[in-house]
């Protein structure tokens, strides 16, 4: 099982690679059978093809992530962090979305599950 | 389904009632078949009796919770928040634990699942 520090480092790599529009780098952090639910309640993207499509869309939307406050671990295979996400779709005003993400990892430290907690009321025009 | 605002309000009540050592008030927020995992990985307290024993212990430890940063909702039945928790067991130094909690709710807005993300490395002597 990965340590909390290894899980937190993987989550920081996730943020850095997304911000660098490095789709292959992002996907390399996930298992082939990973699931992504972002936001929680909006349907689960399951498996490599669906996860690729989701992050391709996220990168196309110009998403810029920044971790807010300390990351948190667990005593098992999961960790969590709070984020501000700036989203700037072409031709639309920039929005800031406040998010809390939880991730679950396999033995090798790859992400098997990502869940992003945010709702419409957590989204506002960016300053 | 409760709104994100209703879920966030329930989570604030949870914090207020725990801080007031109001065990019955805390338990009234949960369903009879609720599960509590705190920290994630340390085993699930399942059902009214186990949840009561867990929160009786939390109150006995002198836990003092404060919400850190904005709470986050979802587009379904779940919400999340970051917390600092001061724990002062009798005769021991006060520790601060950094936590991210997720909760899931039933139709009536009662908590059916609480999961607290923190590991030993998220705990430090309080200032």
Automatic annotation (TrEMBL), chains A, B:
GO molecular function: steroid Delta-isomerase activity
Keyword Isomerase applies: yes
EC number in record: 5.3.3.1
Record carries keyword Oxidoreductase: no
Pfam families: SnoaL_2
InterPro entries cross-referenced by the UniProt entry: NTF2-like_dom_sf, SnoaL-like
Keywords on record: Isomerase
Coiled-coil intervals: none
Protein name: Steroid Delta-isomerase
């Amino acid at each position: 099982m990965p340590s909390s520090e290894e899980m937190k480092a993987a989550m920081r790599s996730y943020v850095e690679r997304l911000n660098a529009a490095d789709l292959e780098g992002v996907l390399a952090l996930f298992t082939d059978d990973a699931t992504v639910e972002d936001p929680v309640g909006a349907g689960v993207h399951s498996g490599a093809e669906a996860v690729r499509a989701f992050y391709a869309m996220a990168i196309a939307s110009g998403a810029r992530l920044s971790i807010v406050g300390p990351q948190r671990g667990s005593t098992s295979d999961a960790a969590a962090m709070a984020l501000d996400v700036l989203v700037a779709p072409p031709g639309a005003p920039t929005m800031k979305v406040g998010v809390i993400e939880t991730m679950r990892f396999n033995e090798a430290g790859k992400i098997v599950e990502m869940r992003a907690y945010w709702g419409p009321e957590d989204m506002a025009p960016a300053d």
